[in-house]
């Protein structure tokens, strides 16, 4: 069987060689093309190309009938009548150029005689920056180098490594772009200080060159494999003491650790010696997602660091919260005997919560009543009680995670606007852009030094709504008399803003309406009723829907004119008040039918008119000359 396979292989090789020889004979059976001095030349050199016909291969016995043509690729560069043609060619480009000789006979197609390829290149430059590396203690030696400029010629590279006891290894590659070779041998640590010398030689048809020798030891070129099996242990489920562990190759002496929170761009770096696969970390933050990586090295001064290991990502354990909640409150009278206390608080920051907040503990207690306190546990950030109006009340609020509770925030419930002397003055709210408002004020006139802090509070203005919108607030030190509010601020929404000045258990407040951006309202108020009262009328209307107000309304206008009259309507302008939805008009003539409508104004302009209503005053004309509203005017 083996003999049969060997016989088939030899027959196959013979057939291939015969086909190649026949192809050459078929292509050049009429003549030959010769190239001098060589088929491979140096860039800038000239070359002589000759084409000659073999005997009896021309058009006729007369040479003048033979027209030989020389082509460079598909472009004709020379021709001659006779049995031979010779041409000198210069300025050939780098690379390979094909020349073809053809015979043209009268009244026939051109016949291919023969052809030749000429390769133009340069001698190889000296290989530079030869360096070798062995990846891992069990890896093989691989070397890389810079080839220099492209020779555009077939080149052969030989990498040779010489070691102790006259040992020599070498490997070749035959490639235009060869710049690395793996010798396939493994250097062992038996003699870590033994020297090895590597050299690479390149040769082509125009010359040869060798690199400078590169001498190194085992410790110089062996790059450890990246550490593996990385894990972390938290002693007693606490972040205060954790141990990072990993596996390394046996000869590793140094390790470099890097770690960072997942939301950070910068790394914390630690270098350790003789770690033996573990290291304690003492500065991790609780309840934080971290990424860990490790690199290794065999020697303090020699060799190179391994690649970084695959990342270990894990979350550190929780710890007891440390921050105190920012608590705010509202107090509202319900009736003669009862009041409603509403508490609000903000979430702790991640660094303060140090874990997932599971609930909040709220305690409300009468200061001197001796009664048992009201206590509640809630997952929300607000709570409301109804308590007697008598007595003084105090609250405490704390946040809890799986490890414990934060220090409680304690505040005494007081009348935040009870001290008129503490009320901030000249409060203003200016549009700062699409999503913020700048609030400014002046300190209380009579007690500016008593102010311990200011609190700026804001919420969307929704007159008549059953559900109050979320309350927002920020605190400001006593030396600041301005604040930029941006939390939950949206354009074209009106906000009720209050500025509180706090001093011990006393407080004073002032309020204003403000918006970050405004334009004219989309519609006017809807008049829902007109009633007659002793010679005047009372107009009632529905508020403009909040989404159509487009900012803070400054004024309402009531327009009226006689029905079918072409005269300009009269108007009454009313300053906007949150709770107002009616207004009297006492300048109408009895037994005259009027048409009435309303508009609303923001700082950006006036809305379109609302619905029209007709009304005829039935009573006697009791309007004295000149009587009317102070702000009655012609449009």
TrEMBL record:
Subcellular location field: Membrane
Gene Ontology biological-process entries: response to cytokine
Transmembrane spans: none
Domain Fibronectin type-III: 226-319, 423-520, 521-620
Keywords recorded for this protein, A-Z: Disulfide bond, Glycoprotein, Membrane, Phosphoprotein, Receptor, Repeat, Signal, Transmembrane, Transmembrane helix
Protein name in the entry: Interleukin-12 receptor subunit beta-2
CDD domains: FN3
The UniProt record lists the keyword Amino-acid biosynthesis: no
Family, per entry: Belongs to the type I cytokine receptor family. Type 2 subfamily.
InterPro entries hit by this protein: FN3_dom (IPR003961), FN3_sf (IPR036116), Hematopoietin_rcpt_Gp130_CS (IPR003529), Ig-like_fold (IPR013783), IgC2-like_lig-bd (IPR010457), Type1_Cytokine_Rcpt_Type2 (IPR052672)
Taxonomy, superkingdom: Eukaryota
Topology relative to the membrane: Single-pass type I membrane protein
PANTHER family assigned: INTERLEUKIN-27 RECEPTOR SUBUNIT ALPHA (PTHR48423:SF1)
Annotated GO CC locations: plasma membrane
UniProt-listed Pfam families: fn3, Lep_receptor_Ig
Organism: Daubentonia madagascariensis
Signal sequence region: 1-23
